[in-house]
Model the fold of this input.
Amino acid sequence: EAFEATGDDGLLKIIQSDILNLVDRGRGANEKKPVSEADASIQIHSCHSPMREVEVLQDRLLALFESDPALLPKDILVMTPDIETYAPYIQAVFSLQTGDPRWIPFSIADQGVRKESQLIDSFLSLLDLYGSRMGVSQVLAILESPGVQRRFGLAEADLELIHRWVRDTRIRWGIDGESRKELGLPEFSENTWRAGLDRMLLGYALPGQDEKMFMGILPYDLIEGSDAPILGKFLGFMDRLFHSVKEMNEARSLEEWGDFLLKFVDEFFLADGETERELLVIRRTISDLASKQQAAGFREKVGLEVIKSYLRTRLEGEGFGFGFLSGGMTFCAMLPMRSIPFKVVCLMGMNDDSYPRQTKSLGFDLMAKNPRPGDRSRRKDDRYLFLETLLSARERLHLSYVGQSIQDNSPRPPSVLVSELLDYIDQGYELQEGKILEHVVVKHRLQAFSPEYFKKSEKLFSYSAENYEAARHAAGLREEPGPFIPTGLPEVTEEWKTVDVDQFCRFFGNPARYLLNKRLGIYLDDETGILDENEPFDLSGLDRYQLEQDLVSRVLQKVDLKDHHSAAKASGQLPHGAPGEWLYAQTCGQVNSFVRTVLPYLEKGPLEPLAADLSLEGFRLQGRIGNIYPDGLMFYRYANMRPQDRLTLWVHLQILNLMPPRKPAGKGLLICKDKVCTYEPVEGSEELLKTLLAIYRQGLIKPLYFFPRSSFAYAEAMEKHGDEGKALAAARRTWDSEFGMSERDDPYFCLCFSKVDPLTEEFRELAMEIFGPILRNETKE
Done:
């Protein structure tokens, strides 16, 4: 008598009524019930993957909100047998900005405690450091916990600075050489936490040492005085961590472990109002260790691994109820006692091998081997839970499963419970025209951007503008793309008109990157969050280049490279042991060969650097002009010559020409590994700089069609052949080059120019304006 009649307006309610009245429709005297073709109260969706299930769910819910303005997110419940698997897909699809038309407020419940509680996750992660390599990412992830930050007085903004220090000092893993020895590895201290922290501390105590060793430590002197409090707090955290991890090696009784861990929690965590409950759960679980010892009379000493296993099991069994019925749409696991009525109930992941869930019994479980009536069965519990869910839906029931292979599109069966529901619908209901199962079951396409979703179909539709554009592109219906910044940015204000010489030269190295970084705050190649976990086994890329440039400077300063080896080793950039020794010796030999090429040009010795301060074209150019010699300006770089190298020397040479006494300052000389170029004194330096400043002004407003390597290839071919066709072909080969990373693959050029042909009339004009004068005054030796 506690049940209410549901009515018969829709397939869902009729089935619920059949269950209430024990009607086996379609058998005996119970005739088939006709169903309207407009009825969508029960829909079953066959998809290719969990991601597609979530994408389909989003579109269906948006359609419901559109058709029923009274429907609210809190009226919707979404359940799945495996919430841990589906949670990342839910986050990826539904985590939209609040201003997005597709935004639906939601929460995810029933995830593991480590995902629900950052504080408990950090506590367990701290225990996991015992016996680990103490990897840099593993340690710094703990420092990102708000509870740890509060305890040590650190702020979220401090972490970026700490990450930079750790990266610069090349910390990789291991407390020190001794901890590596305990793991059965060579006892080297380079790239350990202790080596890096000692460098930071000594660099603050002895700034400006210019990489001079002190007691075997190479100071890292890029820590400013204002950063001292942050450094102190970070060192305090690390010292306490090292001490605690060392103490974890000792075996203790359960009661002793309880005392140790309670103190450990107090040393590393400080809760606020929101996390006080979580910290209380940790303390209560630890305190139970003493009662366990007394109850069992077990006074033997055990290692931390036993305690970790116990704490992890107990804490992961704690339910905090985060995310359940929190006001928005709820995603949760399929658990008993969840039969709360909702207007819309959705079930995802109803696969044949997922639901009902299998019962895995232990080999020595005699109850499982000899079941008796009344024994609990997980499969029967799941069957009953499915029945409860079916009865809980008030207006709509949405079911989905992976019914098609993502590899070959072959069919896959749904859960046996879904199959039974389909069998009953087929047995007891019919459409006036067509098959009832074709009406209830919707087979979806592999991709969300399939054109089928944008053909005004009642079954296949999408609310995604991105997928619509992708579908148009796939169908060859692309609209003519426009520029990344259609109308340009506002004119620069006065503070932009004071320009540092080095920044001015850097602008021409990649104008698109300069514009996006400086004016829009867009960083596409920011790797501040990526930390290398492994010690160096070889030198490549930037590390090799930095070592080579450093060694060149040392040789020119009359430093013995054999004496410098200890500093290079202490910096952590060399591989350990014999490979590092061999690599350093090889690099020194190559560098010495290059220095013998450079030395004849430096016989007369350098002059004092000059401070530049010029006002041209509404801009004020300021900076330091160095590398001045009696015969002119001389730059060297231990690498193959780049267009940017030519341009940098050229800019400095023109600035030097305009400084008092305003006469040609001599020739420019550029020495690189592959060639030596000389630039004769020129007249008209003021006009040349004005042209470059006008281009700079333009590049602060919109992306310039200037790409150093491609533009140089065009200008060089034009100066050599005078044939625009050959010049464009040379530029195209450089732009599309498959040797290394081409300019076409540069993320900033990609963003600004991927939808247009970059080799436009503007490209040709800029190439000749910038590189034309340089090439006409260049002589290769």
